[in-house]
Design goal:
Rossmann fold; 6-stranded mixed sheet
């Protein structure tokens, strides 16, 4: 045995080399590097600091703990470094609930052992912990919050008999998951052919990634939960019965092989037109299947809103046909109707669309709505007041944007990584308010054309000055056309930092998981 650094009265000891517990995960090389015993909740940090250990990569905690102690463990694991905390062993800790977002986004957390007294796991508690590959849920567990394990890399999952509540999206986006079981004594949930349903709630919670082909939703189902099909990458068609009355946001996200969504004619809440999902009145386009075969799609004149993720991944780099491993670049143009008012969050996210018009009636553009698309030019109509976070981020083909006189706010990273951007034409007399990161990570040197505005006022604004310093600014008479010369077009080749290979695969700074995590954080901050 290793010699304890402190006496037993400190209730802290270093790890031992003796017989290991049977619950230890096979690949946990950081297991129980140190053990901290606590007698009172809220004292973990104090006890840990007494140890002054040079190795904190694996910590075992024994005794009663609380939210403060859990937050401290999360802090130790948030360093995202090789010597930060990777293995958290709470098997012998006493706590009944892991709070919302407690360990969210901890990229270096590789192993976690749940307390045997645990009753509830909060919403987003382990969301986006990309290195966490195993989660053995204790038999005491009763409730799992929404998106608690979203976008993890678990290989298998077992739901104990004690679990009576599972939030929407709790297990969404786990693409490596190949084995899911439910204890036979569990009467709250049913698992059949890769579909997890809440029996009492009549809700489809999850279509797991290993399910393939067509899915006919049971006629007992009334709700399709948020992210219910998230990353079910080999589903080709979904059939919605007459019984369904509610479909959550992003229910069909990242279904790269999806070619059509069909709805029973008798359904009074939803309908399908040529495989595209709408509300019954066709005022909201809910989901365009990513692998639907079409170069151009004309949105019906009755549509007033594009729902969250309506065209996400449509015809883009991630979609594919039956030929495994080969992507197709299908949908190239979307024609939006006059009368459309709202383009939702992530509406065209990761799509291969090259051309989208924004009708004069549009007033709201959602977060990341054109993120990672192939559009080259975009004109925002009068009446739009805000450009939200990431509106045109990672649009590597984008060369010119026209902004209206009604614009009052520009969000973070609105042009992030859009490194071919050469011209920004703005018609606002005074500089719109900007997020501190509005023009961050922009490798281009765009020319700012101020139509009818005061150049001095823009140069006096710190954020606009940052943009101007990247390129230049000139006054443009109100109503004057902006012309691109062949010489300027040729010079665009030198504006990108990431030439000459296809930059999409080489430089995307944040993957879709991180993007959605940031968006969820933004929504929470907006509520406060």
């Amino acid at each position: 045995m290793k010699k304890d650094i402190f006496s037993s009265s400190d209730n802290i000891s270093s790890g031992g080399e003796g017989e290991q517990p049977i619950y230890r995960q096979d690949n946990d090389t950081f297991f129980n590097r140190i053990t901290v015993e606590v007698n009172e909740p809220g004292t973990l940090e104090e006890k840990f600091n007494h140890l002054n250990s040079k190795d904190m990569t694996g910590i075992r905690v024994v005794g009663p703990i609380d939210d403060k102690d859990l937050a401290f463990l999360a802090k130790l694991s948030s360093g995202n470094e090789l010597d930060s905390l990777h293995s958290i062993n709470l098997h012998d800790a006493v706590v009944t609930r892991i709070p919302d977002k407690c360990f969210e986004g901890l990229a270096y957390l590789t192993h976690f052992y749940f307390p045997q007294t645990l009753k509830a796991i909060g919403s987003y508690a382990f969301a986006y912990c990309n290195a966490l590959q195993e989660a053995v849920l204790p038999n005491s567990l009763e409730s799992i919050g929404e998106k608690a394990f979203v976008h993890l890399h678990l290989k298998k999952l077992n739901l104990p008999a004690s679990v009576t509540n599972i939030g929407e999206g709790a297990f969404a986006g786990i693409k490596e998951l190949q084995e899911v079981t439910i204890d036979k004594a569990n009467t709250a949930f049913r698992l059949e052919d890769g579909l997890l349903t809440d029996i009492k709630g009549k809700k489809l919670l999850q279509c797991f990634n290993y399910r393939k082909g067509d899915v006919h939703i049971a006629e007992t189902i009334e709700t399709i939960g948020t992210l219910a099909f998230g990353r079910a990458q080999e589903i080709t068609a979904v059939y919605i019965p007459v019984s369904v009355t509610h479909i959550g946001n992003d229910a069909f996200a990242s279904m790269y092989a999806l070619e059509r969504i069909e709805v029973a004619v008798e359904n009074t809440h939803y309908c399908s037109v040529d495989g595209v999902l709408f509300d019954k009145q066709q005022t909201m386009l809910i989901s365009y299947p990513p692998s639907k075969k079409a170069d151009t799609y004309i949105v019906p004149a009755s549509v007033r809103r594009l729902a969250t993720g309506a065209f996400q991944e449509a015809g883009g780099q991630n979609t594919h046909t039956a030929t495994k491993g080969k992507s197709v670049h299908g949908l190239k143009e979307v024609v939006l109707p006059e009368g459309l008012e709202t383009i939702g969050d992530n509406a065209f996210l990761f799509s291969g669309v090259e051309k989208v018009n924004i009708p004069s009636t549009v007033r709201t553009l959602g977060h990341n709505c054109f993120y990672y698309t192939d559009i080259e030019t975009m004109s925002i109509p009068e009446g739009v007041e805000r450009l939200e976070e990431g509106t045109f981020a990672a649009c590597y083909s984008l060369k010119k944007v026209v902004l209206p006189s009604t614009l009052t706010y520009i969000g973070a990273g609105v042009f992030e990584l859009s490194d071919a951007l050469a011209h920004i034409e703005i018609h606002t007399p005074i500089p719109p308010r900007c997020d501190a990161e509005a023009f961050s990570k922009l490798g281009a040197a765009p020319q700012l054309h101020i139509a009818g505005g005061d150049i001095a006022a823009y140069k006096a604004d710190a954020h606009w000055a940052e943009l101007i310093n990247k390129g230049s600014a000139r006054h443009l008479a109100s109503g004057a056309p902006l012309k691109d010369t062949k010489e300027k077009a040729q010079n665009l080749k030198g504006l990108s930092r990431y030439q000459p290979v296809d930059p999409r695969l080489a430089i995307l700074a944040e993957d879709l998981n991180e993007l959605r995590r940031r968006q969820e954080q933004h929504k929470d901050n907006a509520k406060k």
